[in-house]
Amino acid sequence: MEQTTQISACPACSAAPMAQSIAGRAEKRADILLSLPSIHCAACISGVERTLRAVPGVRAARVNLTLKRVGVEAGPEVDTKRLIKALADAGYDAHELDADILGATETDPHGRALLMRLAVAGFASMNVMLLSVAVWSGATEATRDLFHWISAAIALPTIAFSAQPFFTNAWSALRVGRLNMDVPISLAIILAAGMSVYETTQSGQHAYFDAAVSLTFFLLAGRYLDHRTRRIARSAAEELTALEVPRALRVSGETVAVADLRVGDLVRVLPGARVPVDGIVQQGESEIDRSLLTGESLPVAAGPDTAVSAGEVNLTGPLVVRVAAAGQDTSLRRLAELVAMAETSRNRYTSLADKAAQFYAPAVHLLAFLAFGGWFWASGDIRLSLNIAVAVLIITCPCALGLAVPAVTTAASGRLFRAGMLIKNATALERLAEVDTIVFDKTGTLTLGRPETAGLSGYSKEDLAVAAALAGGSAHPLAISLAEAIGREGVEPVILDDLREVPGRGVEGHWKGQVVRLGRAAWLGADPSTATATYLRVGDDPVLTFRFTDTIREGAAEVVAALIGQGKSVALLSGDSPAAVAEVAKRVGIDAWEAQMLPVDKAARIAVLAKAGRKVLMVGDGLNDTAALASAHVSISPASALDAARVVSDIVLLGGSLAPIAEAVSVAESATRRIKENFNIGWLYNAVAIPVALAGFATPLAAALAMSGSSICVSLNALRLVRR
Fold first, then answer.
1. Is the residue at 95 inside a domain?
2. Of 226, 278, 441, 576, which residue is the catalytic one?
3. CA separation for the pair 35, 290 (Å, rounded)
4. Which of 71, 343, 441, 663 could form a disulfide with 445 if both were Cys (CB 3.0 to 4.6 A apart)?
5. CA distances from 326 to 81, 245, 276 (A)
6. Exposed, middle or buried: residue 590 (CB in 10 Å: 0-12, 13-18, 19+)?
7. Residue 643 is part of a domain; what is its CATH number?
8. How far is the CA of 122 from the CAs of 117, 118, 150, 220, in angstroms?
9. Are residues 497 and 580 in the same domain?
10. Which candidate, 512, 516, 463, places its Cα nearest to that of 491?
11. Whole-angstrom Cα distance, residue 247 to residue 342?
């Protein structure tokens, strides 16, 4: 649904939200929505948009770098597979997303409303303060009353509008017979405004409109900071659901919605397409890329009777698959449900601020009630008693406590952002400070997921030229890497006849009257290597082996050493083969590792560690990691990760290096200390200020000034985190 444009208090307040809204509407109008996990810069944006606009039938393409996706406006004749292929040819990975599922989760109306209320309260408090200065400077009688009435005309509508979040939350709590932090806040604001109106009608010397509006402004500032650090644009479970293929191709050639498929139906999966259902291969041979779901770095052979799952990618040959599960019953949807349950469980974490609120609100009400009752019993003056009760409510108002956490979180988030990390959740730092166990995924996390040749020395130039020619005819990751490595050596490929890819086996052709092949060991009659490898046979010559290693991500070994130095336990969980996992574990310095783990297995292992009392930090990047990321005490994913992994994570690595993770743990521990220090500042302030207010020495205005001073002290203490 189109969002109507709202009038903001000022152009600056509306500029950023409007820009986001426009981008969101542009994306919602898109006919096709694609995820682009590998884009990272302005050059990528222009490259993707230029590539897509060159496809016939595409009217417009707009990239969202933050969300790593592109919205495409195209005619009905444009096939999504053509767009994905065009991007792949240009060097960009792309996956289809369901725009209908994601369309309603892009805007932030709550944040926009808070920002508008904050702007109104700030503007009003400045004006009311100016009028108060005129009163403090000596205005008397009629002039003083006039300034008070003008202040009332500004303050009362402002409070009615800006303080609504506090009033609404307080009423919701009171209706069910409980207290929360917004109850004393609302009482303080309402009583300060009400007493000020009463004083004004009685031509009193003091009115506290400035205190009521300033209180609203400071509390809204804390609420907005808290919202910005807490907000996650959408659920990772929704992202997983959106990654499902919305359409499938029947063997008859008819394209239908996946929801219309039934168990036993036959669907055709073309090379380069994602499998839309869980099923069993009936015809054809190919290779399946399961890296998104299992973390296996290399494709696996698929033929008749091979089980395939929704979300896997068919690489080389067409397959006919008999449907075993579709729509709600697929393994991908079950994974989404597992992630949703894990997200719900983790959201039950009780923050330090929530723990403080459990007993703070009742104590404040009791103090204010005792102040009113005691002074009314002693003096019999209800006006004086109410003023003192209001001063107690204002001076004990949890503004400093409300700012204690978001101020520290914002300062820490800024420092980590400069170090290359984005904090997405308000309680992430508190949870990160508690971790004692760090679990890494392998492919795409500790490694870049790109195999590289272990070396080309020892091979003749002629063999390399033949290998380059064969590798150039394959879409297999090992073949692509081999062709690039040989090209860097300056070796030109030979010209082959009858070059063809044999699905599930490799590539073959004819050269100088003899058959040449590049592919799997069994196909070439060779003994398989324990390492990742591909094999070359030229005619009847002996088989040559090209070995590969996965590229270790920058900073991987350093961060493992730093975390172990901090006294943390470090483990590696992967869906890849034992040999590949063992090699990477040895290279980065991890002793504890497990291989061939399914997504459910990873989440179960995290649960076992949690049951044993361990606080686990999970670092992963793929669909196979989302359940584990959601189940962990706190989670981190690289910016290159798929949307689902980035969304479920509490922290995102913006750069290519893993090194900032160790700093993040250190900063989180410092941030937690600062939060506790801020709470101590709040308690110390209350220990001094409350007796003063109870004794009747603090007017509501003085109470508001003292409350503001405590908030400033809390903010200054939080800024200490900015320094390294």
1. yes
2. 441
3. 17
4. 441
5. 20, 10, 8
6. buried
7. 3.40.50.1000
8. 9, 6, 17, 10
9. no
10. 463
11. 28
Closest CA to 510 of 496, 524, 522: 496
Run of H or E including 383: helix 382-395
3-class secondary structure, 321: strand
User: Is 390 in the same domain as 472?
Assistant: no
Strand 447-453 to strand 319-325: parallel, antiparallel, or no bridges (unpaired)? Answer: unpaired
pTM, rounded to two decimals:
0.55
Strands, E assignment, 175-269 = 247-250, 255-257, 266-269
CB 658 within 8 A of CB 664: no
| Percent residues over pLDDT 90 in the chain | 10
**Shortest CA distance to 627 belongs to which of 335, 241, 232?**
335
- Give the range of the structural domain holding residue 23, as residue numbers without chain letter: 11-105
Give CA–CA dist 625/442, Å, rounded. Answer: 10
In a domain, 236, yes or no: no
- Residue showing tokens 């008819």: 254
Total Cβ atoms within 10 A of residue 62: 18
Instruction: Give residue 452's pLDDT.
Output: 81
Read off the amino acid at residue 174: L
Identify the DSSP state of 214: H
Residue 659 belongs to a domain:
no
Q: Is the pLDDT of residue 20 over 60?
A: no
Check whether residue 684 and residue 590 sit in a common domain.
no
Considering the domain architecture, whether residues 101 and 128 belong to the same structural domain is answered as no
Do 640 and 676 belong together in one domain? no
CA–CA–CA angle 91, 93, 95 (5° rounding): 150
Chain centroid to CA 486: 39
Residue 677 predicted with pLDDT over 50:
yes
Compute the distance between CA of residue 296 and CA of residue 603 in angstroms, rounded to an integer: 17
Do 429 and 568 reside in the same domain of the chain? Answer: yes
- State the Cα–Cα distance between residues 658 and 382, nearest whole angstrom: 64
Domain boundary (74, 90, 105) is at 105
Rg from Cα positions in the chain: 32
Asked whether the CA dihedral 26, 29, 35, 38 is positive or negative, the reply is: negative
One-letter amino acid for residue 63 of the chain: V
155 lies in some domain = yes
So what's the pLDDT on residue 335? Answer: 59
- In this structure, the answer to whether residues 564 and 440 fall within a common structural domain is yes
As a residue count, the chain comes to: 724
Q: Average of pLDDT values for 214-227?
A: 75
Distance of CA 331 to the CA centre of its chain: 23
| pLDDT score of 413 | 72
Distance from C-alpha of 388 to C-alpha of 692, rounded to nearest angstrom: 10
Instruction: Say which residue the tokens 């990047």 belong to.
Output: 621
Q: Which two tokens stand for residue 178?
A: 């409980």
CA–centroid distance for 409 within its chain = 16
Average pLDDT over residues 176-184: 72
Indicate if 178 and 118 belong to the same structural domain.
yes
pLDDT digits (tens, 9 = 90+) for 552-609: 888 899 999 999 998 999 999 988 778 888 888 998 999 999 988 888 888 889 989 9
Domain boundary (624, 654, 684) is at 654
Q: Cβ contacts of residue 698 below 8 Å, gap of 6+?
A: 391, 395, 689, 692, 706
Tell me what the pLDDT averaged over the chain comes to: 76
* CA atoms of 196 and 200, how far apart (whole Å): 6
Query: Three-state secondary structure along 97-126?
Result: ECHHHHHHHCCCHHHHHHHHHHHHHHHHHH
Question: 235: which residues sit within 8 A by CB, 6+ positions away?
Answer: 105, 340, 343, 647
441 is catalytic: yes
Sheet containing 313-314: order of strands: 300-302, 286-289, 313-314
Distance between CA atoms of residues 475 and 507, nearest Å: 10
